[in-house]
Design brief:
mainly alpha, 2 domains
Length: 157
């Protein structure tokens, strides 16, 4: 089975983060569950490192500025995220879902994944995990969750 850090993170997110907060704090139990689910110890370790780095980089929640500076992406970022992913990040910023600091955290966490390219669905999961980890970002998280699992949100005017 070809697995990646993102596979482990998605499994954790879907099975533990929303329902069993106490289990999330117990890494030994989580690791045993992940091993039982068939993930390799190396990928589990990388996923925990990814989550630790995410927790260390919590920016203050700020209102997005639509009229702020334009973010220029480096060649490796553009290669990994592609035009569709970068356009999606701009869309989220313009709609106030992500502030500049949160966008940078999403880009950082996407670049930390062990994948050559991040498709739009994977990028949406990274955004959702980053927002889940942000204190005060509950409305943005709910908006993003609704985008992914519910009806598409109406554009703001």
């Amino acid at each position: 089975m070809k697995e990646s850090i993102l596979d482990v993170l998605l499994y954790l997110f879907e099975h533990y983060f929303n329902d069993e907060a106490d289990l999330v704090r117990d890494r030994d139990s989580l690791q045993a569950s992940l091993l039982e689910a068939g993930f390799s110890p190396a990928e589990i370790h990388k996923a925990f490192e990814w989550l630790d780095e995410l927790a260390e980089q919590r920016p203050a929640v700020a209102n997005a500025r639509v009229d702020g500076p334009v973010r220029l992406y480096t060649a490796p970022e553009y290669a990994k995220l592609d035009a569709e992913g970068i356009g999606f990040l701009m869309f989220l910023e313009q709609n106030g879902v992500l502030g500049p600091e949160q966008r940078e955290l999403v880009v950082d966490r996407a670049m930390a994944l062990d994948q050559d390219e991040i498709d739009l669905d994977d990028l949406k999961w990274v955004v959702l995990m980053v927002l889940f980890n942000q204190p005060g970002a509950e409305a943005a998280y709910a908006w993003m969750e609704n985008l992914m699992f519910g009806e598409a949100p109406l554009p703001t005017h």
